Amino acid sequence: MPPVPGYRWKALRENRDADQATVAKALDLAKRTYQNIETNPRHIASRRVILRAARYFRCSEEYLNGESDVPGKPPEEQLAPPEPDRSDPPQAELVETS
Questions:
Q1: Mean pLDDT computed over 54-77
Q2: Which in 1, 21, 44, 63 has the greatest CB count within 10 A?
Q3: Longest dimension (CA), the chain
Q4: Dihedral over alpha carbons 70, 10, 17, 49 (to 10 degrees)
Q5: Domain extent listing, the chain
Q6: CATH class of 6-74
């Protein structure tokens, strides 16, 4: 994986009015690890961390790891909506004839 653009993580965190310790706890990371993600341009976050952060910040994984410039939707919202239940076919309308 390429290094993550920490400035994006910082901007997303600041938009939530959260401090580094709060985000680190939400992502199940040590505060120092989260600080490294934001400040070290060579830091490489694991896929697990990126996925958790995407859910927390409500953006796409691709945005967090620099593959996209569009924040997008969080992972759970990228899934297609469920197919409608087709077990009961629609009833035909009765039309009166005169």
A1: 83
A2: 63
A3: 81
A4: 80
A5: 6-74
A6: mainly alpha
Predicted confidence (pLDDT) per residue in 8-40, tens digit: 999 999 999 999 999 999 999 999 999 999 998
Pair of tokens at residue 82: 């469920």
Gap between the Cα atoms of 73 and 78, Å rounded: 6
| Measured CA distances, 29 to 3, 32, 63, 89 (Å) | 17, 8, 20, 50
C-alpha 22, offset from chain centre: 17
How many whole angstroms from its chain centre is CA 78?
9
**Is 47 within 8 Å of 37 (Cβ atoms)?**
no
Task: Give the tokens for residue 37.
Answer: 């993600």
Q: What is the pTM for the complete model shown?
A: 0.69
Q: How confident is the model at residue 77 (pLDDT cuts 50, 70, 90)?
A: low
pLDDT band at 69 (very low <50, low <70, confident <90, very high): confident
